[in-house]
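queue> holo job accepted (glutamine)
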Amino acid sequence: QYLARIADQTHLNAFTEVYADEALTRADELDARRVANPDSVGRLHGMVIGVKDVLSHAGHGLRAGSNILNGFTAQFTATAVERLLAEDAIIIGRQNCDEFAMGSSNESSAFGVVCNAADPERVPGGSSGGSAVAVQAGLCLASIGSDTGGSVRQPAAFCGVVGLKPTYGRVSRWGLVAYASSFDCIGPIANNPTDAALLLEVMAGADDFDSTVSTRPVAAYAQAKLPDPTNGGRSMRVAYLVDGVESEGVDPDVRQATQGAIDRLRAAGHVVEPVTLSLLKYLLPTYYILTTAEASSNLSRFDGVRYGYRAQPASDTQTDLVAMYKQSRTEGFGPEVRKRILLGTFALSASYYDAYYTKAQQIRRLIRDETERIFADYDFLLTPTTPTTAFRLGEKSAGAETDPLQMYLADLFTVQANVTGYPAISIPNGTDGVGLPIGIQLMASPFAEENLIAMAESMF
Ligand code: GLN
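queue> job finished
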């Protein structure tokens, strides 16, 4: 069924490769195993999952939406993917994404743009755009994406599905193509919070291959329940960001939908109060200084020697190694990635390090402190996931006349969770005047995924 739908919806460009034969063979194997021993089935038995093209899967291509990985085959399998397979999931293919997960519209992929299934003239969001559209259009049951500044939640919001970014260190990053290592999180995109919770449950937990992963026990997230106030439990305390319902920069339809969610939470008996974030205007600058710095370092490994693409020398006599590096990187990386490598290299250069990198690290700490102060009083922070609904293809993508910062604004509300490492989820919250999905985001304290999922489920 999913393969037929994929074949029917190729114009969406959600998948970069579909493992049709492999998926069918595996489905047969899983069926046979279930018939032979119904008690031995895994928790994801037969669940058809798509994986963003930034996660290694041994023997399969891995491109991170880039030409520089042209011809590259993964040598090992990411821990997250390994755990899905160990619980009997079926991986149906690799999904299109912005190059090296850099983008908010899925327009920077070497495999071309992905279209939003709600309106193919519009972007799906990014960078996990293919993964969100695949769930939206029913091309798989759920997807696995990565979220460095909103890449799971923002496309989930644009496509009307659920996207969950866990606490930093909840899921091993082993086998994830690194963008900004102190921000990167692997997270599920699904039709509902419970499916997302189940996938998180399977992927999360200690891993010898990632020293930043937490050894805290993993709860049964898919069974998470809110305490029942009528039975001795307390009601939840929710803070909402005033800007999300008042700021001129947020679409009126999005503001109204957010206010609607606030009203419903109050009606359900929760305490819902406004808060402000004095450092809001520093979120995006801090995020972009630090992530480009980390990216410039992480992406230095793509040199034309070790992975994928190598530029052909201009002549047989040209054997200059440095020229080969330069040419391979110039040809292999697209414009957004090159821009970020340059920005990050600049921020890390000896004369500017203190002015930019050190300063941004200090502000990161202040943002974390301010966020902690909010969570000393509240269980959740509520915002719209994005200031607007899905914009038109080409509307904000880099061109001489477009302001690149316009695109970055799409992540205004999502980056806080990555700057601080907190978990956050985006769930659908109605549609705008022309029927495009609106998302609402809930953020919770570190490792409070159970509460986060239970609350999301109660609002879903
Ligand atoms: N859109 C943001 C960026 O371009 C976030 C991307 C992400 O989360 N991977 O960096």
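queue> The longest helix spans residues 353-377.
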